Amino acid sequence: MRTFSSWFAGRALPAIIGIIAVSFILTIFLIVRIADAQNTASLQRTAEFAEAAVSRQREALERTAKDYAAWADAYRHLHPQVDLQWSYEEGNIGSTLFPDLGIDHLLVIGPSDDTAYAVVEGKLSANAVAERLLDGGIRALVARARESGTETVPVTGFLSAGGHPVLAAAAVISPGDQDDVARAPGPTSVLVLASGLTPERLERLAGEYFVPALRSVPADGLRPEESIAISSEDGSLRLALEWDAERPGQALIDQVLPWVLAAAVLMGLLAFLILRYAVRTARTIEEGARELAAAHRKAEHLAMHDAVTGLPNRSMMSRFLDSSIGRESGQALALIYLDLDRFKPVNDTMGHLAGDLVLGEVANRLRSAVREKDLVARVGGDEFVVALRSVTAPAEVELLCQRLKEAVSQPIRLDGTDVGVGMSAGIAMAPTDAQTSEELIRMADIAMYQAKATRRGSHQFYSPEMNDLIRQRRALEIDLRRALASQEFVLHFQPRLRAETLQVMAVEALVRWQHPIHGLVAPGDFIPLAEETGLIIPLGDWVLQEACRAAACYPDLVVSVNVSPVQFRNGDLVEQVRAALSSSGLPASRLELELTEGVLLENIESAIKSLRALKALGVSLAMDDFGTGYSSLGYLQHFPFDRLKIDKSFIAPLGDREDSRSIVQAILSLGRALGMSVTAEGVESAEQLRVLRDDNCDELQGFLLGRPMPAEQLSELLADPARSMAEASAV
């Protein structure tokens, strides 16, 4: 009779060991397959990154070549003869391309195929020969570029310089789309830009595109999955870009397989330990699969959600709207398109991290205010969308808008400071206003912009008339462009008086639009549109020129000119001021520029540089509307201002509220401590005048002392200063 032990030893144990052995073989095979799959995925991903790096470099070089080659000024100065003064000395197309864009070689191949112009690493190379600077078939590359005829169509290829591969782009130099430029007969000139793939540059690309150890090597014995073959135009240079892709699968094998083999040895002696270890191994593999599935779900979530707030993004919102519109008969879908008010100053002054915290808090408040079946999405920088299903009446949406505004407007605590934002919203309904998601979003967006234009912090339902308002806005933009060309703008001047003597010390130049149909148009009706469209830059230049010209007619009169934020950031303000002073003959000491606090805080270093350049011209600088923004004492110490202008919102309550006087006195003390003159704006009552004079304010400005007036009336005022002082004293 066979005992259990003999049965187990003779039959069961071999069977168990065999089963375990097969299981281990399968486990090892699975690990190797997983490792191989990981290695393959890593190789493919790194190869894609490497190809993207080369492709992006090629595209960037083509764009740069086209930008400079299809340029009327370049055509005039580089073809058929090269103007060294314009190109190199003035820096129009020369040394700046090396530090700014990494262009190592810049060549102009003339109509006769000679090297008419060469700049190597930012330095002019006289009597250069193209083949000595760039070999590997530069003539073939130039010939390919000329195949486009007289049109600028960049072509790229590989050349070599100093033993290193060079990515080069060539393009025919042409006037571009300017048909008024006369074209020279005969062969074309070609612009060649080259960027060397040196070890240093390849190292930088490796870091930017996650391609480990990217390098150039001879084209022999390459690993196809870890290299890109490159050859010069004439085939004389055959190299490759090679890299060392990560192999995560090998790490998996190195870490797991020894333990599996050790366990297999122990399984021969202790079967139950082998079984237990097999279970644990299976669990480990299962856990890895779960982690992989979780990572996949996370990637899908990120593709449909905003990274900052966690809200659905525009893609998920569009899916939601497509699936919801028309789903329930008799019930509407409401879309609320909202934009945060006063968010940009928070982002500019406190930093993007603080701005992200504000966005996250707003997102939480919006989510808490809607039902579970509704959707809240972030669709832009400070723009959100709330989609409401099963809406039976507009009154429901009206109530929700009120709740949303109350929730958003509650103070947000950041680093011990209360930050306040608001919201303006536009509402569109489906199917009443739109039948598709795209149209519904557009209608709500139009309504939101109309709400912001009417009154910030409000909300409006879409109506067909709003399309008319959009058309009117476009018509106003066309009218504004025509007005600039027709010189329909005029300047009015508001006097600024010394508080002690009530003597006119300066005037502020204020622009008005003398419309041929509507008459005199106030700046509030056209300045916002001018800033939005960029027309404020030529308009601001005209104001500067006219103000300086008018002030030059009056001895010792200082003129103050407002500078728009758009003009300060995007215009060449320093050159505009220099030109206005030069053409008018006005001494720089009699020109004062007024800037608001907000324009200075977007890029503090750039703002300080611009202000110092203006101060170097000799003009004075005034901070306008002081107290309404976010300036700190530290900013005031860094910015070279000569004057503070107290905003009229602090002047209006003087005489009625004692705390207002305390605030004004504090600003006056701050100005004296910093060595700045202080001007009070918006003086409109005798009591305000008395308080400001008693508190030793330096200068005063307001309707009480003089309204904005045309130049003729200003001449009368300045011709009889005693009368103006008497009128001011009488009040």
Automatic annotation (TrEMBL):
Annotated EAL domain residues: 473-722
PANTHER family associated with the record: DIGUANYLATE CYCLASE DGCP, MEMBRANE PROTEIN
SMART domains: EAL, GGDEF
The organism's place on the tree of life at top rank: Bacteria
Residue ranges of coiled coil: none
The species this protein was found in: Terrihabitans rhizophilus
InterPro entries: Biofilm_reg_signaling, CHASE4, EAL_dom, EAL_sf, GGDEF_dom, Nucleotide_cyclase, Rev_trsase/Diguanyl_cyclase
Protein name from the UniProt record: EAL domain-containing protein
GGDEF domain segment(s): 331-464
Transmembrane segments annotated in the record for this chain: 12-35, 256-275
Keywords: Membrane, Transmembrane, Transmembrane helix
